[in-house]
Structure formats: structure tokens, C-alpha cells
From TrEMBL:
EC number: 2.7.7.65
Keyword Phosphoprotein attributed: yes
Protein name: diguanylate cyclase
PANTHER family: DIGUANYLATE CYCLASE DGCM-RELATED, REGULATORY COMPONENTS OF SENSORY TRANSDUCTION SYSTEM
Natural source organism: Spartinivicinus marinus
Catalytic reaction annotation: 2 GTP = 3',3'-c-di-GMP + 2 diphosphate
Record-level GO cellular component terms: plasma membrane
Residues annotated as transmembrane: none
All copies of domain GGDEF, residue ranges: 411-542
Cofactor: Mg(2+)
């Protein structure tokens, strides 16, 4: 009898080797991104800048050795920018902007083959998630759900298995029972043991069946427990939390407008902020402020109190009279020490008052805190609270903008509407909270499968809208149908049995019409999809009107 041995073909071996090398370069790229992320949370200290530079040099070396053209091009450009501003010279806004753009480009190339997300400036973790739960069926269910969302996870059944897994490879996050293995608090003990062996603690999501007394919660928090779930695990929530904990999100640098008639003071403020990776624009003639606001996308204004043509309070009043600038924080910077006068100034549309001379660290912290709050507020205004997607109003505004862009650049544009099928019966059978979970789960799924440049909105209850710029009809249908197919296969965990939900989708190609017409066309196509039996994607045909 001849034995049949199946050998891997040479081509597949070469392909695997190539993948292996590509992955090593990808890891270097991720390190550069991490360094950049850290740099922008603090000062651009010499030490951290040097680390960033070293990480980039390593990336360049690996990318050249393994012939990864896209990576080596970006690394070379980063290294050129870094060379151009030597250590004597402080980084300016152009440098920050340029580096940030390059890092965002790098974040595209840093995605791995298996990564499902293609969001710009957002890198999913490459490390696995470890699960140790006493209820094995709960663990396996969670594992399945994670796989749907492209997260790599591993389930362990015993303490020893878990430790072996840990020694083999560190996980990104651990989901564990506080009593893992059966003994009281054995899970927390195991985690304490693990955390003691490593430098940066791993985020832990604890689960506890019944006991949620404060002492256990305290112990869990001390072991770097970020969540403490009780009475059942909701997979959607766990996955969302893991995403938050592991994703490096590259926020755009803050953009600050400095209004000060004193050039020396303005440039001092500017260089202080630039050294913290904050983009600035200076206005020394207060009357020019409105023109500059039009062009410079401002997160925050730093305003001198006393200037020759008008004072800071008057100028703030004028700025605040315009609806679109109402939410931009204004921080006064002045030598004025009189608290009463400071209070009056705050009443006139200012948000904070900083007294000169100000410590650079204090200035940077104030800008970062105010900037973050302003961005959060803005996002509340334009986002839906259940899903975090854009709300109806903003989605329509965005559609107008994209229609104008498509016209100007002569790009194709697709507008799609999605509606969950027979959703009323989900609510009726499983209850409203379960319905909400399904809506959230579809939102998360769409976020993962679409590009950052696409707009995803929650149009109404169980209805979503998607704008796909620069996308042709065939590509859009292929993509949406693939999403439809995968979503329909997902098992939504529920009692007494899991449920599967489908959606229908209607899409329309931009053909010179306006946003309203485009949205009406997509709506008609959606109607046709519902009539055509649901769980399908239909394209608007002119004959439908
Ligand atoms: P079809 O396949 O034709 O779309 O049928 P359907 O049942 O999905 O459509 P219908 O318009 O009859 O019902 C939609 C239901 O969605 C009615 C409403 O109570 C529910 N709904 C709307 N918004 C929400 C929400 O935020 N949460 C939950 N749980 N239900 C919602
Ligand atoms: Mg519906």
C-alpha cells in the first residue's frame, strides 16, 4: 500500500513566508503608531521624540529588508520630517499636521490580512482575548460572538491551562470569573499573580455569578478590573468594551486659535502648544478673527483680554452671536488678577480664565481638557445615544456635503438605506431591551465593516442610512450584500433560544440629483426589497419612479 503524503506546495510555502515577514513589518509599524500616540498625550520631550525616531528607523530597516514598499515610503517621509526640524527648533503646526497625516497613512498599512476593520486611524489589537468562565457554555457562546466581530479569543477551562496559555502569549484583555476554577476568589488571585509578572497591567473584565459585594468589587478593581459584570454576560457589551480597551484611536490633534495683539506673547503660547502636538493659528489683529475662524477649523480659542481695537470680552460676544461658533470654548489669557473682573469676563461668553505668567503644563492641560469636552459635546449633538452612529439630521447634512463633493470631483456616490426585517416581532417575542441589543449589534457590525470615510447614520428606529463616497454601484452592492449575508448568519444571544435577524437594503447611485432625491430613491429601492421577500439588497431603477 502506498502512503499518501500531502506536502504543502512550494508556492503556498512562499506565500506563508511572505505573510510572516509582512507581519513583522506590520508589528514595527504598530510600534511607531503607539509611540506617536503616547507623544501626543504628553510634551514632546526629547526622550520620547527619540523613541519615536528609533521606532521609525527600525520600521524603515525592516520594511526595506522585507521589501514592503508602502511601509518604507512612509517611514522615509517620517524620517525626513523629523530631520527637518532639528532638536533646537520646536515643532510647528505644519510639522504636527504632516506627521499626523503620515501616521494615519501608516495606520492603513498596519492592518493585518485578517483585520475586519478598515477604519482610518484606528488599529485593532493583534493580541488574543483570553476567556476563563466557570460556565463553559457561556464562554463558548462569547467566543463565537467574538469571532463574528473578528476578535481572536481562546477559552480556558482550568487554572493550569490558563497559566500555560498566558506564558505562551500575553493577551490583550482577559474575561474571567472571579471564582474561576470553582474556589472563592480564585479568579482574582490568578489575575493578581499574572499582573505581578508584567510591567503594563492587562485590562480585566470580571464576571461574578451572584456575589457582588463591595469587597469583591474592590479586590477586582485593584487587580485592574475595568468591568464587573453580574447575572449573565451580554456579548455585545463585552465586545464593545474590548474594542474600547484595545483599539489605538488616533484622534486628530487639537486646533487652537490664539488671539493676542502682542506678537511675543502669541508666539510663546504657540510654541508651548506646538511642543505638545497641538496645532495653532495666531491672530494679532483682533478684527481679523472672523475671517480666520471661517477657514481654520477651530476646537478652541485662547483670547487676550486687553487689545487695542477691541477687548477680549467684546470680541467673544461677537463670536458667540454666530450660531456655528456657540460651542467653541474661549479661554481668556491675561495678566488681570482681579477676581471680580475675571468673573465679569467669564459672564461675557468666556469659559475659563488663565492668569499670565502661566506654566506651560497648566496651559496644555487646560487646552486638552477643554478641547476634549468640546469635542464630546459636539459628538453628542450629532450622534445617536443608543448606537453612537450619526443621527438623522447630521446624516442628511453629510449627504448634502457628499453630493457636492461627488459633483465637484466627478466621483461616484452611493446612498443606501437599511431596515431590519420583522423587527416588531423581535420586540414582541423577546422584549424591547432585546430589540435595542439587536439595533446596537447591527450598528457595531456596520462600523466594523465600513470605511471611516463612509457615513453610517441611524435614520430612525430600526432604520439605518449609509453614504459610500467614491464607490461604484457594483462594489456597493457586493459590499452590502456581503454584510447582509454575514449579519443574517449571526446568532443574537437570547432566551430561551438565540435568534437570527435579517435586514433589507435599498440603494441609489448619485446621478446628478440632489440629496433629497437620492434619499427618496434609496427609500423606494428599500420598499422594493421588502416587497421582494426581505433579506435582500435592491438597487433603485429609474422605472420605479
Ligand atoms: P418590516 O420587515 O416590514 O420592516 O417589519 P418591521 O416589523 O420591522 O416594521 P414595523 O415598522 O412594523 O415595526 C418596527 C418596530 O420597531 C416598531 C417599533 O416599536 C420598533 N422600534 C423602533 N425604534 C425602536 C428602538 O429604538 N428600540 C426597539 N427595541 N424597538 C424599536
Ligand atoms: Mg423593519
Amino acid at each position: 500500500m502506498t502512503e499518501l503524503v500531502v506536502k504543502p506546495s512550494t508556492t503556498s510555502q512562499t506565500a506563508r513566508l511572505k505573510d510572516h515577514f509582512a507581519q513583522r513589518v506590520t508589528n514595527r509599524a504598530r510600534h511607531v503608531i503607539e509611540c506617536w500616540h503616547r507623544l501626543n498625550k504628553e510634551h514632546w520631550s526629547k526622550q520620547w521624540l527619540a523613541e519615536f525616531q528609533r521606532a521609525n528607523e527600525k520600521l524603515l530597516k525592516y520594511a526595506e529588508r522585507f521589501k514592503q514598499q508602502a511601509h518604507s515610503d512612509i517611514a522615509r517621509q517620517i524620517s525626513k520630517v523629523l530631520q527637518d526640524f532639528n532638536e533646537e527648533k520646536a515643532p510647528n503646526s505644519d510639522v504636527i499636521r504632516h506627521l499626523n497625516d503620515l501616521i494615519i497613512k501608516l495606520s492603513y498599512t498596519a492592518l493585518r490580512k485578517g483585520d475586519t476593520s478598515i477604519e482610518i486611524g484606528s488599529i485593532p489589537t493583534s493580541k488574543p482575548v483570553y476567556i476563563g468562565l466557570n460556565h463553559f457554555s457561556m464562554a463558548t457562546k462569547l467566543l463565537k460572538q467574538m469571532e463574528y466581530f473578528g476578535l481572536r479569543a481562546k477559552v480556558f477551562h482550568t487554572h493550569d491551562e490558563f497559566m500555560k496559555g498566558f506564558e505562551n502569549r500575553y493577551p490583550a484583555v482577559i474575561v474571567i470569573d472571579v471564582d474561576f476554577g470553582g474556589e472563592k476568589r480564585a479568579g482574582i488571585e490568578l489575575i493578581n499573580n499574572i499582573q505581578a509578572q508584567i510591567e503594563t497591567p492587562i485590562p480585566i473584565l470580571f464576571y461574578c455569578d451572584e456575589d457582588d459585594n463591595i469587597l469583591t468589587r474592590l479586590e477586582a478593581a485593584r487587580a485592574n478590573g475595568c468591568e464587573f459584570y453580574t447575572h449573565g454576560l451580554e456579548a455585545g457589551h463585552v465586545i464593545e468594551r474590548i474594542e474600547q480597551l484595545t483599539r489605538i484611536t488616533l484622534n486628530d490633534p487639537y486646533r487652537v486659535l490664539i488671539v493676542d495683539d502682542s506678537k511675543a506673547q502669541a508666539y510663546f503660547t504657540q510654541s508651548t502648544l506646538n511642543k505638545a502636538g497641538i496645532i495653532t493659528q495666531v491672530v494679532t489683529k483682533p478684527l481679523e478673527v472672523m475671517d480666520v475662524l471661517e477657514k481654520f477649523d477651530t476646537d478652541l480659542i485662547i483670547m487676550d483680554m486687553y487689545m487695542p481695537d477691541c477687548n477680549g470680552m467684546e470680541l467673544s460676544k461677537v463670536i458667540r452671536q454666530q450660531e456655528k461658533y456657540v460651542s467653541i470654548p474661549i479661554i481668556y489669557l491675561s495678566a488681570e488678577g482681579d477676581i471680580d473682573k475675571q468673573l465679569v469676563a467669564m459672564g461675557e461668553g468666556g469659559d475659563d480664565f488663565l492668569t499670565k505668567p502661566i506654566k506651560p503644563r497648566h496651559l496644555i492641560m487646560t487646552v486638552r481638557n477643554r478641547g476634549e469636552r468640546a469635542r464630546t459635546l459636539l459628538s453628542r449633538m450629532i450622534r445617536d445615544s443608543l448606537t453612537g452612529l450619526y443621527n438623522h439630521t447630521y446624516t442628511l447634512q453629510q449627504l448634502q456635503t457628499e453630493v457636492m463633493r461627488a459633483e465637484e470631483y466627478e466621483h461616484p456616490l452611493v446612498f443606501a438605506m437599511i431596515d431590519i426585517d420583522k423587527f416588531k416581532s423581535v420586540n414582541d417575542t423577546y422584549g424591547h431591551p432585546m430589540g435595542d441589543r439587536v439595533i446596537k449589534s447591527l450598528a457595531l457590525f456596520l462600523k466594523q465593516r465600513l470605511r471611516k470615510t463612509d457615513t453610517i447614520g441611524r435614520y430612525g428606529g430600526e432604520e439605518f442610512a449609509i453614504i459610500l463616497p467614491n464607490t461604484g454601484q457594483q462594489a456597493a452592492v457586493g459590499l452590502l450584500d456581503d454584510i447582509r449575508e454575514h449579519f443574517s448568519q449571526m446568532k443574537q444571544p437570547a432566551h430561551p433560544t438565540d435568534l437570527q435577524v435579517t435586514f433589507s437594503c435599498g440603494l441609489a447611485m448619485f446621478d446628478g440629483s440632489n440629496g433629497e432625491q437620492l434619499s427618496a430613491q434609496a427609500d423606494k429601492a428599500l420598499y422594493a426589497a421588502k416587497n421582494g421577500g426581505r433579506n435582500c439588497v435592491k438597487v433603485y431603477q429609474a422605472s420605479q419612479s
